[in-house]
Amino acid sequence: MTWIALRMLMGDRAKYFGLIFGVAFATLLMSQQVSIFMGIIRRTASQILDVRDCSIWVMDEKSRYIDEVPALPDTDLFRVRGVEGVAWAVRLYYGQNRARLEDGNLRNLLLYGVDDETMVAAPQTLLAGSLDDLRQPDAVIVDKAGYEYMWPEDHGKYQIGRTFELNDRRAVLVGVCKASPPFVTLPVLYTRYSQAVEFVPHRRNLMSFVMVQHEPNRNPEEVCRRINEQTGLMALTQNQFFWKTVYYFLGSTGIPVNFGITITLGFIVGAAITGQTFYLFTIENLKQFGALKAMGVSNLRLIGMILLQAVVVGVLGYGIGIGLTAAFFESTSGITHLAGLSLTPLAAGGCGVAVLCIIILTSLVAIAKVLVLEPAVVFRG
After folding, report:
1. Taking phi first (over 0 means left), then psi (-120 to 50 degrees means alpha), and beta for anything else, what does residue 343 get?
2. Which residues of 52-66 are buried (b: 16+ CB within 10 A; e: fewer)?
3. Are residues 206 and 283 located together in one domain of the fold?
4. Measured distance between the N- and C-terminal CA atoms of the chain, rounded to whole angstroms
5. Structural domain for 269, as ranges
6. 30 and 85: one domain?
7. Number of domains within the chain
8. Which residues, 6+ apart, have CB-to-CB distance to 75 below 8 Å?
9. What is the helix (H) or strand (E) element at residue 163, kind and residue range?
């Protein structure tokens, strides 16, 4: 019966490839859109994940996500340091700024002001220059994508020592680093905190976060609770702050709806193409199924044949679709603007479940047609 089922499936090559194409197209569309959606959502909090040398972020209690953080007075740093369970705490500036380049053009950017002594929150990987160079006067380090955005004429050949203006003050490029792309795709600039306060317009308070490392024998969530109680500030672990930012963008923007529409369309189109083709395939093979029934083949055996045909189509179509998605992300991995977007196991698994649903739905339609089939149909016309 297995051989007969496969011969029936592959006998009409046009319909056979049509079935596989429908599943492959649906898989490609769904897996690509789901992966891009996950990558973009991750970008909204990628700057949080880039800071790996502290465990707790302390901020104003009204903060909703990383880009909307009211500044704190410097005295809050000392209040946090006095909380039991805090091993050390340093300050961090984070905000948007605008640079004027040598040719007069303006570029908006994200500016980090890391602690002068410990360099906590400084970039981990330097592509050019050295982190120690950040201690020089007016020194800044920019991320790779930011350099290509600010000086595209260099075509990726880094020119250390370039100068430009921040808040009418001279800034000197001393390095290029690797950083996760932010959601707004702005250049990411690093400097010392004492230098950052010169690069931004003067305000009464400038400290965005207090970066905290808990003592080794302490639970970080317990330390966060103590900081909340004793200072009134919001203290979150890195993971908590990451998800707080992600949930903000999921709940306050149209990103999930837009991607959800595309993913749903991919599912509907895939189900429609596969369902229609599989149904027509079943209709055209009714005489063969009727003949098998007339020869005494049970309904259970016929159901097994249809499920086998559906599984073959589903596995081949899903494999081709996932392969095409992986090839797409592999071929675009070198494009700066698409950095960080990749096929994730969760996206591949989720699409696998969706394809399984498509296959089950189309199989049920075909099975229903065969179960009510009268064997006498084989003797007509």
Report:
1. beta
2. eebbbbbbbeebebb
3. no
4. 26
5. 1-44+254-379
6. no
7. 2
8. none
9. strand 163-166
Whether the Cβ atoms of residue 15 and residue 280 lie closer than 8 Å to each other: yes
* SS3 assignment for 4-49: HHHHHHHHCHHHHHHHHHHHHHHHHHHHHHHHHHHHHHHHCCHHHH
Per-residue pLDDT of the chain (381 residues; tens, 9 = 90+): 677 777 777 777 777 887 788 788 888 888 888 888 888 888 888 889 989 889 999 999 999 999 889 999 999 999 999 999 999 999 999 998 999 998 888 889 999 999 999 999 999 899 999 999 999 999 999 999 899 989 988 887 899 999 999 988 999 999 999 988 887 778 999 999 999 999 998 888 899 999 999 999 899 999 999 999 999 999 999 999 999 999 998 888 887 788 788 778 777 776 777 677 777 777 777 777 777 777 777 878 888 888 888 888 889 988 999 999 999 988 887 777 777 788 888 888 988 888 888 778 877 877 877 777 776 665 555
Residues 198 and 270 in one domain: no
CB atoms within 10 A of CB 105: 10
List CB contacts of 174: < 8 A, sequence separation 6 or more. Answer: 129, 130, 133, 134, 136, 139, 140, 141, 160, 161
180 within domain boundaries: yes
Instruction: Report d(CA 312, CA 243) in Å as an integer.
Output: 40
> 178 and 50 in contact (C-beta within 8 Å)?
no
Shared domain check, 309 and 220: no
Q: Which residue type is seen at 98?
A: R
Residue type, 102: E
Of the three residues 232, 264, 299, the one that is the final residue of a domain is 232
